[in-house]
């Protein structure tokens, strides 16, 4: 069946075609961003009604979004009290890095095998945006471009199972790094991401995987240093 085939190099499957976003997905993206950027700070208690009014959405999509956010540890739902935004946990982030490293390697291998020319062009564009915002030390724009790059990498892998798994892990990572990554480290981190993308664009697994190893060593060191300092935002 053609719909079940993996995408080959330069070719995408019908499953890759974009689809309209649901109201629940719109609510999820908006609330996730509010939590990551600390507009909804750890310890805040909010209600479905308040969030719906803020977003101009009904209770049903907000409730569905909160259920998803609960599964990735962003919120706790307390009946008759409201929704509690959880704390950012450094130890849990170290555990997350252990899980992410081999999965990021899998994403890179799949992208090398299956990325289309359009995928590669998107990745190179994302890296350009990431590096420029890193040099400007623009935290919000930097993390917006980092999200676009992560989504581009996973999209280039053309593996729906990876897409769902990595979306949750990347959201948790973005929340941690928005809180703890020093802006002085932005250019170095962006340069490492650029090396990974260069390897994928060249179909060079050795370069891409070496870049991922460098990235996760770098992230592990920054996470451990965060144990000794307060949140930066």
Automatic annotation (TrEMBL):
CDD domains xref list: WHTH_GntR (cd07377)
Region (Disordered): 1-21
Domain HTH gntR-type: 21-88
Pfam families xref list: FCD, GntR
GO terms for MF: DNA binding; DNA-binding transcription factor activity
Keywords from the UniProt entry: DNA-binding, Transcription, Transcription regulation
Gene3D superfamilies to which the protein is assigned, alphabetical: GntR ligand-binding domain-like, Winged helix-like DNA-binding domain superfamily/Winged helix DNA-binding domain
PANTHER family: TRANSCRIPTIONAL REGULATOR, GNTR FAMILY, UXU OPERON TRANSCRIPTIONAL REGULATOR
Record's protein name: Transcriptional regulator, GntR family
């Amino acid at each position: 069946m053609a719909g079940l085939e993996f995408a080959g190099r330069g070719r995408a499957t019908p499953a890759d075609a974009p689809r309209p976003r649901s109201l629940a997905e719109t609510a999820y993206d908006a609330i996730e961003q509010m939590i990551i950027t600390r507009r909804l700070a750890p310890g805040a208690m909010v209600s479905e009604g308040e969030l719906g009014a803020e977003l101009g959405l009904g209770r049903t999509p907000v409730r569905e979004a909160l259920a998803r956010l609960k599964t990735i540890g962003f919120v706790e739902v307390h009946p008759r009290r409201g929704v509690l935004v959880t704390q950012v946990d450094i130890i849990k982030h170290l555990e997350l890095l252990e899980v992410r490293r081999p999965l990021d390697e899998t994403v890179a291998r799949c992208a090398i095998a299956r990325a289309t020319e359009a995928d590669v062009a998107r990745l190179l564009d994302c890296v350009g945006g990431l590096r420029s915002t890193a040099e400007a030390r623009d935290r919000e724009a930097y993390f917006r471009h980092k999200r676009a790059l992560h989504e581009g990498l996973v999209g280039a892998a053309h593996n729906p199972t990876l897409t769902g798994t990595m979306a949750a892990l990347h959201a948790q990572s973005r929340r941690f790094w928005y809180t703890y990554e020093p802006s002085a480290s932005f250019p170095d981190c962006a340069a490492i991401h650029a090396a990974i993308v260069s390897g994928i664009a060249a179909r060079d697994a050795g370069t891409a995987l070496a870049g991922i190893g460098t990235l996760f060593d770098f992230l592990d060191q920054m996470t451990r240093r965060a144990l000794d300092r307060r949140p930066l935002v």
